[in-house]
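User: I'm curious whether this sequence folds into something compact or stays loose and floppy. Could you predict its structure so I can see for myself?
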Amino acid sequence: MKSIRTGWERAWHGRAKGRVAPSQRVVVERVQGLLEAGEFEQAEAEARALAASPRTRGGDPGLVSWLARCLAAGAAAAHGRGAEVLPELETLIAELEQTAGAGRQLLLVVRSNRAGVLVQQDRHIEAEAEARDILHGTTRIAHLVKVWRIELSALTSLAGALNGQGRHEEAEAVARGNLSRAEGRTAAFLHRALVRSLNGQSRYEEALAEARRQTPAGGRAASGTLEIVTAGALHGLGRRDEAETTARQALAACEQFLHPAHPRIEEARTLLARVVAEDPAAE
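Assistant: Here's the prediction. I'll summarize afterward.
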């Protein structure tokens, strides 16, 4: 299960940046720094304060409000409160669909976050459709702005949606085809999607080797992801003691760093229960 990638963290640069007052730009950059550090609660609080702040000379109040609300909802979703903020994301999408220019780029970013939430909620068919439409949308504005971060975020959602539907070969192709051009958190999630796709094909030796290859950690948003797919590979190989240990590590990481509502916590618990239940020593 994936988390929300914050591909929108850079989406305000270029034409949008010139429409944000200098004092507001400082807040936006501070929020982005908090997000990079995994300080989701503080990032959300500061973004919501910016959204509620009075108009500032030299800025576009509409764009600033949309951007701040985007950042706040994205931070909450990355923390694990995707179900809670899904209506907010959909409201933003409806508003941004009426805009042009920088608003259209921001629209793709918000839709990418929505796709990630849909994957979290196991609404995989909807997530696939959303991700594919986002990818189509990026091609329409690629000649105007840089959209590769949004594209990679959508591709990660697509891989997650395909895995969720049991279409593991397709998910593998998406992950392998784009991993080399990803970086940081996005690379971490694409890597986890690749390992999950190999597990789904019962290619456990390959999955374990891939899981143990050095890749970006992904930060707080990726907590437990590597341990979950590694435990899945170990379990598939019949190495139950190692699988149990790794599944417990996954659950501990999820409970420590993610919001209690994050679906990954339940995923880790379910995996651990399955491993323990199938261990002869537990009978």
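Summary: The chain is about 70% helix and 0% strand. The longest helix spans residues 61-79.
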